[in-house]
């Protein structure tokens, strides 16, 4: 399958575009961060894409992982994962994140750049964290600058506080976090010159007319952070 705005295949990225190889490096950084906080035992990688992150955890953090269940909604992504990133410790499964129920308790959940795509983020966090053992860890990330206006696949915008609240309301507490920053060139994005940016929202001016609150949210972000996307990556522990 080809790389797209929502799918990255490391074997098929050929440039250092903001939405290409540079974005992949942010993804890999998140997985390395997750690996350093994993508890010994089982792990679910929810919305695993084509599986390179689960493979990274299985190979570079093997002392912490007995078994990884790597889950994604798209069958083509899982087929690619099984052929390219097969590993004895990884079980790749096709499943909706909102409906996934592991057959055994989990010591760890990793779900990176997932919740902004889901219709009910709070329900997802509540449902999946119910499968964590007491003291288990949930490592997650999301954009904390506006993204819904540009990305039609994103259903929610989060701030740092609203993101944390999803997990606190589900009985988890944050024990560590960091913020990633990614600068972008406005005109390259607007002109869709970058390969993966072709999937960005069409008719964004019309979108702002229909959703003026999103225009003011974007304006506020530009005044505060300039042409920079920010992502919060955090480790939560089940009380």
What this model shows, in words?
- The chain is built from eight helices and seven strands, in the order H-E-H-E-H-E-E-H-E-H-E-H-H-H-E.
- The chain has a single domain (13-238), classed as Vaccinia Virus protein VP39 (Rossmann fold), CATH 3.40.50.150.
- The chain has helices at residues 21-37, 52-60, 75-84, 121-129, 160-168, 186-190, 204-210, 212-225; strands at 41-46, 65-72, 90-94, 106-112, 132-143, 172-183, 228-238.
- By secondary structure, it is of the alpha/beta class.
- The mean pLDDT is 91.
- Helix 3 (75-84) links the parallel strand 2 (65-72) and strand 3 (90-94).
Task: Looking at this protein, list some descriptive labels.
7 strands, 33% helix, 239 residues, Rossmann fold, seven-stranded mixed β-sheet, alpha/beta
The gist of it:
The chain is α/β, with parallel strands linked by helices. The protein is 33% helix and 26% strand.
């Amino acid at each position: 399958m080809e790389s797209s705005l929502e799918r990255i295949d490391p074997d098929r990225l050929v440039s250092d575009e903001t939405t290409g190889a540079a974005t992949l490096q942010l993804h890999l950084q998140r997985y390395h961060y997750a690996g350093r906080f994993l508890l010994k035992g089982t792990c679910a990688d929810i919305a695993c894409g084509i599986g390179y992150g689960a493979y990274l955890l299985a190979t570079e953090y093997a002392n912490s992982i007995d078994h990884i269940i790597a889950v994604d909604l798209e069958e083509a992504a899982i087929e690619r994962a099984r052929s390219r990133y097969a590993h004895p410790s990884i079980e790749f499964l096709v499943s909706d994140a909102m409906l996934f129920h592991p057959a055994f308790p989990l010591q760890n959940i990793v779900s990176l750049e997932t919740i902004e795509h889901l219709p009910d983020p709070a329900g997802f966090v509540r449902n999946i964290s119910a499968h964590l053992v007491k003291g288990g860890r949930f490592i997650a990330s999301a954009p904390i600058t506006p993204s819904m206006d540009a990305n039609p696949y994103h259903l929610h915008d989060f701030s740092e506080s609203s993101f944390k609240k999803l997990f606190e309301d589900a009985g988890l507490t944050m024990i560590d976090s960091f913020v990633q920053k990614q600068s972008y060139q406005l005109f390259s994005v607007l002109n869709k010159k970058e390969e993966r940016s072709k999937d960005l929202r069409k008719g964004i001016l019309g979108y702002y007319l229909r959703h003026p609150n999103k225009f003011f949210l974007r304006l506020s972000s530009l005044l505060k952070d300039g042409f920079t996307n920010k992502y919060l990556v955090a480790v939560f522990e089940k009380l």
